[in-house]
Amino acid sequence: MLGVIIFLVVLVMIIPLWFYVDLQIRTSEESKEMEDRLVRTSDVLIKSPGSPENWNATNVLSIGFSSGDRQLNTTKIISFLDMNYQDSKKKLGIEGYEFYLYFNHLNGSLVTFGGKNFSYGMNYTQAAGEIHKIERIVILKDTGAALSVMNLVLWR
Questions:
Q1: What is the pLDDT of residues 54-91, one digit of tens each?
Q2: How far apart are CA 128 and CA 38, in angstroms?
Q3: pLDDT in tens, 27-56
């Protein structure tokens, strides 16, 4: 009888620990998946011209801003700013996430071009949960800025 009681006590102590460890593993895997998605998405934006190569907001199949490695086409960025948010998430392959994309100068000020702020997406400052951000150094053609920073923020 004492053996059964000890077994049950140990079992009752181990079950919550098991669920805690399982939750930590799943959270870590989700975090890694989000980080991988963030890196892949930023790579596509800065290294691919998109499809078709001269896409606009109405005919885009896949989004890419590149006109050379890390040299970004401002016309494509402006077309992206005109897209519907849900459509842009689908074209970027991040439907299960929310995102915010913005460009700033090396001094931290927001890049503007043709009267438009180069920022797009949901405000992440009030986002609950885990937030991932990547910064990539890029060249924005036609803005007069030699180097800029593309910031992509992703969360659920």
A1: 999 899 999 999 988 778 999 999 999 999 999 999 99
A2: 18
A3: 677 888 999 999 999 999 999 999 999 999
> Encoding tokens for residue 42?
């930023």
Q: Residue 138: what are its φ and ψ, rounded to 5°?
A: -140, 165
Question: What SS3 class is residue 22?
Answer: helix
The whole-angstrom separation of Cα 18 and Cα 25 is 11
**Cα torsion at 33, 83, 121, 145 (round to 10°)?**
100
Q: Is the dihedral of CA 118, 122, 123, 128 positive or negative?
A: negative
Find all residues with CB under 8 Å of 131, minimum gap 6, and list them.
Answer: 124, 153, 154, 155
Paired tokens of 81: 């700013």
Residue 123, helix vs strand vs coil: coil
Q: Look at residues 102, 127, 130 and name the one whose alpha carbon lies nearest to residue 33.
A: 130
Q: Residue 111 and residue 92: Cα distance in Å, rounded?
A: 22
